Amino acid sequence: MAGSKQTFQVLEDNISGKDQTIWFHCASLGEFEQGVPVMHSLKKSHPNHKIIVSFFSPSGYENKKNTSIADVVVYLPLDTKRNARRFIQQVHPSLVFFVKYEFWPNYLTELKRQEIKTYLISGAFRKEQLFFKSYGGVMRRALESFDHFFLQDLVSKELLQTIGVANTSVSGDTRFDRVSQQITMDNTLDFIARFKKDHTCIVCGSIWEEDQDLLLEYINQVPKHIKCIIAPHAIDTSRVLALKNKIKKQSVLYSQSIAKGNMDPIDTAQVFIIDTVGLLAKIYSYADIVYVGGGAGTKGLHNILEPATFGVPIVIGKNYNKFPEAVKLRSIGGLFSVEDSTECKTILSKLEEDTNFRNRTGMICGHFVDSNTGATKKIEEYLKTHKIAQ
């Protein structure tokens, strides 16, 4: 709320009436990552346009407020008619892209009124959503503002057809394109290499307290040849210290070692807690096994594709049915879902002890990502074919 109060002033300071702009709206960090490949594409095809990115969630804004891919990053003000008119007037975009979801009726209605081309990318729909209920008329009308829906799967396309929405195509999930690019980048982190050495490394990424309940029994009993890296989703001091106090193995915090220029503590530690942001994607490149958080509770499963692209087997909690990539990857044997700490300990132990099983599972993950790339190219081809705002 505090951040959104600054939005209009930020726009006024950074966008002139002569600027050409393209607006991307993302709910949070995950949706931003889905939008990045399309942003890169449009920066090439529309070099004279400014890229404007808006967020709803602080976790997205705080992590990406200084991203180099966008010219302006702001919070999206509340969805009122007045805010929508003022925001769109100041941004005056040639093109608008909403990512995955976030359907704000007043903003969408105003975009349609001004006949601004508006698209949904990596869209995913479920029959439980309001659009498909008898009382969801307002939200169904909001969908009429989109010129085209680029969808993740055929299920979403068929659901939209049931309510008369036909301007759709199944392009896939742009996250696959985003994570596949990670392999081509320099993922070197000297301090992670120094910590891991030649040990088997288990990375626990974006974990919450519910995930800790599954993991700590195993972590507190791991043999010396296993190293564990834990990246909590929430890195406020009280939560991080509470986690550290639960760990019986020798552990070290990033904030108390690397951040202070002292690498010595990581040489003797068996557990490395990464209480900072922006490193996890690179850390996954050092993993032999990964646990991805969010699925043990109701926070929402975090990005499993980031580790999958490195060909690493993945373990998650039990709540993942709303995440089609997790459902699919589990069905083909690249991912394991656990209900409790006993199941978690069993599968982590098997992956650690059976190298052939671990390698075979990891290969499934890597191939899964490789075989699902190409969504960005399909969006590019559509925009080119329809001569969209060159």
How is this structure best described in words?
- This protein has 18 helices and 14 strands.
- It is an alpha/beta fold and 390 residues long.
- Strands 3-2-1-4-5-6-7 form a seven-stranded parallel sheet, sandwiched between helices.
- The two termini are 35 Å apart.
Report a brief summary of the structure.
By secondary structure, the protein is α/β, with parallel strands linked by helices. It is 42% helix and 18% strand.
List the helices and strands and how they pair.
Layout: H1 7-14, E1 20-26, H2 29-45, E2 49-55, H3 58-64, E3 72-75, H4 81-91, E4 93-99, H5 105-113, E5 117-123, H6 137-143, E6 148-151, H7 154-161, E7 168-170, H8 174-182, H9 190-196, E8 200-207, H10 209-219, E9 226-232, H11 237-246, E10 251-253, H12 265-268, E11 271-273, H13 280-283, E12 289-292, H14 305-308, E13 314-316, H15 324-331, E14 335-337, H16 341-353, H17 355-370, H18 375-385
Parallel strand pairs: 1-2, 1-4, 2-3, 4-5, 5-6, 6-7, 8-9, 8-12, 9-11, 10-11, 12-13, 13-14
Helix pairs in contact: 2-3, 2-8, 4-5, 5-6, 10-16
